[in-house]
């Protein structure tokens, strides 16, 4: 499949069309996404909770996953971003925050790194919240989010993820931007949509967020299949000859000569 770039996101925004994004952190999920024709994959830090079982996204660092771009100062962000693009093959990096991180975004863009912003609910700076909370419900907060979005656009961001924001606000922000938005829990008015793949496919025991609109329950299928396999191991029915490597006649004869 041809690799899509942030330029394709912009083209979709300009054409009024939509694109789909899912998280992917390993070969199986990347293969699912590619085979399903998903336009973009996000190596997002939600992997901390969803794949690694950590309490929060901040538990993932560069040394662990080479994907974490939330550096607080421009030199570190530039160095991390360069590693993601150059060493890990990323097409862009995603950075949480609005007005406050706009100078970092501008510095990255100047150094040639395509940046995707992230506003609304931003997990890395929401550690004091016991659960994800919608943002921009009040007029002042809504105006601040628009200001964040515009600051990111002016800083040269290629697109902006908008998370957990009233759908009318996300649509209003999208219509005021020239760059695409990518919604998660932000309604259909965004240019693209992103979801955490295990939430979509029902891979986890914990309830998925309502906005994920789960489309399958693969966890139950996986557990049922593994339970069946485990019982065949216990009963001695696995493996059968079909899964084995047959010895030839010479080896079989030699086996009889092996010391007891
Ligand atoms: O970084 C991430 O994994 C995300 C998802 C919640 C979309 O932003």
What does this structure look like?
There is one protein chain. By secondary structure, the chain is of the alpha/beta class. It contains eleven helices and seven strands. Strands 2-1-7-6-5-4-3 form a seven-stranded parallel sheet. The chain is elongated. The N and C termini lie far apart (57 Å). The structure holds 3-methyl-2-oxobutanoic acid.
What is the residue-averaged pLDDT?
Answer: 89
The percentage helix is: 40-55%
Intertermini distance: 57 Å
Cα-atom radius of gyration:
23 Å
Structural class: alpha/beta
Number of H- or I-type helical stretches: 11
In N-to-C order, the SSE pattern is HEHEHHHEHEHEHEEHHH
Backbone shape: elongated
Low-confidence runs (pLDDT<50, min 5 residues)?
67-72
**Number of strand elements:** 7
Please summarize the sheet with the most strands.
7 strands, parallel
Strand content is 5-15%
Identify the strand order in the major beta sheet. Answer: 2-1-7-6-5-4-3
- Bound small-molecule species: 3-methyl-2-oxobutanoic acid
